[in-house]
Amino acid sequence: MEKGNYRIGIVGGMGPMAGVALQQLIIENTPAPRDQDHIEVVCFTNPRIPDRTKSLKEDRGEKFTKAIVDSIQILQKTGVNCILMPCNTAHVRFDQIQKAVPIPIINIIDATFRELRGLNALTVGLLATNGTINSKIFDNSKNVKIITPTSQEQKKVTKIIYQIKSGKYDNKQIASSIDSLIEKLTARGAEAIILGCTELSLYFPLLKSNRVVDPLTLLAKEAVDMARTTRFSAVQW
């Protein structure tokens, strides 16, 4: 890595398209008139990372934590300056993962709350996996009230997420289903809606509401801002 370059590392595979979508968002949010003005990005797609929701239920997330740490250690050898984990549920174990590696990880949950403060949204709807909902990682702010789907609505959210992961879905139908869930949360008082699963983030551009907050987009923007404002010499971890 040349002196002054900044290299972003992405732990991909949570789910299959999340890392790809994040790379695209990084490119789209980088002001670069030439190829050479873009940011260096290394993505390690690891489809062997255990299902985060299942792991949280069975072993409190120990298995997926180890798999993510192993993935970061592979990225570490490429000289990356920061790590992005495009999976909201994985951030339930953020502290444990960060303690295990020397490279700073940009926190997708923190990025989301910074955006919510700017919107002055005090009551926020959350669409996410069961693991994210049950962990209450989005409930840690005293200034924001989180509204979650009913049990029946949550079953629909889960079905949508795993349909997207499987690759067997109709884009218009999925977008319409997410819009319907957003309308229900809005009717119950939500001033903004968090797409708290990176599978749902894939549909952010297709949704009708203008009060949707997409953590994956915010993660990309924070990474770009960090890369543009931080000057690094080559790092040998």
From TrEMBL:
Gene Ontology molecular functions:
amino-acid racemase activity
The superkingdom listed in its UniProt entry is Bacteria
Keyword set for this entry? Isomerase
In terms of InterPro entries, this protein maps to: Asp/Glu/hydantoin_racemase, Asp/Glu_race, Asp_race
Protein name per UniProt: Aspartate racemase
Pfam families cross-referenced by the UniProt entry:
Asp_Glu_race
Q: What is the lineage of its organism?
A: Bacteria, Candidatus Staskawicziibacteriota
Similarity field:
Belongs to the aspartate/glutamate racemases family.
